Amino acid sequence: MTQMHSSASGAGPAPAISLSGATKRFLTKDGTPFTAIRDVTLEVAPGEFVAVVGPTGCGKSTTLSLISGLEGASEGTVEVAGAAVDGIPDGVGYMFQGDAVLPWKNVLDNVALGLRFRGMGRREADGLARDWIGRVGLTGFEDRYPHQLSGGMRKRVAMAQSLITEPSVLLLDEPFGALDVQTRELMQDELLGLWSGTGAACVFVTHDLTEAISLADRVVVMTAGPATVKDVVTVDLPRPRRVEEIRLTPEFIELYKRIWDSLREEVEITRARGASRVA
Ligand SMILES: Nc1ncnc2c1ncn2[C@@H]1O[C@H](COP(=O)(O)OP(=O)(O)OP(=O)(O)O)[C@@H](O)[C@H]1O
Asked: Domain ABC transporter: where (predicted)?
């Protein structure tokens, strides 16, 4: 089941996302280059859900930055829907750990925001926003402001905000990292329900291996920094999934052990580096 990823070849639809030999170097304050990720090669198919795990600070968010066009690759290529990324590509949605909701706008206006930015008229945008507010279970809260909502409710707003523009690529950087365990599991189920059938390719960065396996079609294990792809493991658990149920199955536990064996080595390398720095 464990497979090193190789680039797909031949005819067929372009991958939703393609990184080939992608390396990112930043310049540190004193002008020396610092390599954040190296030689990352990965393809994500349309409609596929890929989770990325790796030790802390290895370069997971940097990988997302290259796909989103927020940063350019120093070497290698990055493509979205077959086109080289040069600036922020169309059709890409985001969800981050911090709230992207605007505190001075109510739920309706926050959810309608992406459509309004794209020039849609207020009536049409509000209609679609009300529909999405219903889908995320917030009907009746349209007039509330973010500070009047719980953390889970704000995440529901963020999910509606990200999905209302029907992105073909959805980038998620530890979106549920700040939530309590119960809310987090609920949000994972909600996300799967909302995502299924959208055809969006998802890249979900997380520190939580259980979350990664519960959600993904494939789990990508990154090495200690500067990260490169170490393993890509196919998660052949049936969908639709209820995350709190599949976690208890022998297949899930087997996958967990297999991926953790690979990830643990990288975590230990990272910890040893940290220890040597403070020694
Ligand atoms: N704009 C930047 N300039 C300089 N260094 C950066 C920049 N962005 C990230 N880095 C460095 O690149 C490395 C990888 O950072 P990144 O945030 O991608 O890791 P991560 O795996 O997402 O981290 P975490 O697990 O803590 O969320 C880190 O050492 C970080 O300090």
From this structure: 17-249
